[in-house]
Amino acid sequence: xxxxxxxxxxxxxxxxxxxxxxxxxxxxxxxxxxxxFYGWGVxxxxxxxxxxxxxxxxxxxxxxxxxxxxxxxxxxxxxxxxLFALTLPPLVPWWIVVIGLFFAIVIAKHLYGGLGYNPFNxxxxxxxxxxxxxxxxxxxxxxxxxxxxxxxxxxxxxxVVFSGLSDVFNTDQWDAMTMATPLDDVKTExxxxxxxxxxxxxxxxxxxxxxxxxxxxLAFLLGGLWLLYKKVINWRIPVSLLSALxxxxxxxxxxxxxxxxxxxxxxxxGATMLGAFFIATxxxxxxxxxxxxxxxxxxxxxxxxxxxxxxxxxxxIAFSVxxxxxxxxxxxxxxxxxxxxxxxxxx
Length: 347
Hints:
By secondary structure, this protein is mainly α.
């Protein structure tokens, strides 16, 4: 196989890099709000993930005999690392990050041929492997700042991540600092027979969802709107995803009032906004036809509701996106626009 010339490769990397930089800028509000509520662990996850992702990227490019400098310049590995890091609980052990990014960068990206050839979203592959393999470590979210004012310091956070929990906190202290996510908590309470209106009135909840997650979701929504304004992404996938999720939640809530989560709760909980604007819109693994994008986004929204409501996992962005990644070739094939002037039935 003959590779692109340096000039053409650099031109392609430059175009991709421009898009990836816009994505990184748009992630800043969400990352900043998460850091405010959950502390230094968010920053540690991001920085360490970038370092590990770049290490795997360079190693994979070297083994594949690809020009390292050219492909590093597209920022794709950094974007994957940031998206992956923002799905992790703060203070997650360092080896969790390494394992997840190995599957994201090496397995899901480079074993399929690198950027532009991966059928699955790399960050979501890494997350899915971790949530299935290490549910305990992936479920330990610390309490947000306003409900637990003494967040770990930078030194404490680094010690927990790289040396272990027992070097900083005992079991009772750690249990007092951690809590289930709003998605997990509400699901458990509803299965116990508690009404949704009663759950949402407790101290850890705001107007429609968990206090912290409302603001985090709004911040990612702001970043997503910026991407739409800059025309980095198309409106079809995020709008159809959010609309489908809200619609099915509204219908089920109408059938079983106060026994199911509200539409706004689903929209502003977990990684919904991050998934709708930053993950599902991945140009490589998502649909490319206009009708296909609407079907793709709506289907992801449908699976998010199904898995969150009746599945074993509290959040469902990763599984929903990966399920639909498998369907992309079929959807694009059957939704190709008819060529102007072609007869009915012809492509």
